[in-house]
Structures are given as structure tokens and as C-alpha cells.
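[Meeting: bench + compute handoff]

Bench side (C.D.) handed over the final construct sequence. Compute side (W.E.) agreed to return the predicted structure before the next meeting so the bench team could plan truncations. Sequence as handed over:
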Amino acid sequence: QVRLAESGGGSVQAGGSLRLSCVASGFTFSEYTMTWDRQAPGKESEMVAEISATGGHANYLDSVKGRFTISRNNGESTVNLQINNLKPEDTAVYFCHAPDLFVGLEFGLWGQGTQVTVSS
């Protein structure tokens, strides 16, 4: 079964840290770019970080640069997001995403999401 499963979310105070993890199954993980996206209440989804298939290249949303670090382990089919110096505006549901994976009749595979809540 093709699947992405996130974990690691939670409620933290501003300035704290979290490490989000995503385990992939059912496809050749090492062949695909992976992203972490988030959706805050009442706002559109936005990509916060992406990492190339080999892990050699990463891009970040400007507002998270220097605080978020994406990494992957192709041997374990995992992609992680280390979040430091959390801010209240980081509150959102965070999703693991394989944007180029063709599943069913469309591109893109999403996980179920993990909630991150940051209090001031």
C-alpha cells in the first residue's frame, strides 16, 4: 500500500523545538523529491521545505529559513523536519508530501498530517 505516515507533532511554547518524521511505504522512496507542507486554520496550504531525491539539495520557505531543517534517510524511507525556535505563526497541520508520485489518476501523495501548536 502506498502511504506516508507522519509523527512528532505536539504543543510547545514559543522558542521550543519539534522533530517531525514521515515514513514512506509502497513506492521507491529514493527516486522522489519530498516536501513538508503546512496548512494553518483559514489559510491555504504552503510548502515549507523540500528535499531532492538524493538529499543533496533542499529549499525552504523564506519565513522558516534558519529555523527548519529537512533531511531524509533513503535506506529507511524516512523524511524528517527539525523545527527550532518555534513561533506562534508556525501553528498548523504539517503534511509529508511526495509531489511527483503518480497515484491512482493524479500526481501527489499526502500523509494524514500532524498538528503543531505553538503558544506565546
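W.E. noted at the follow-up: The CA atoms of residues 14 and 87 lie 5 Å apart. C.D. will use this when planning the next construct.
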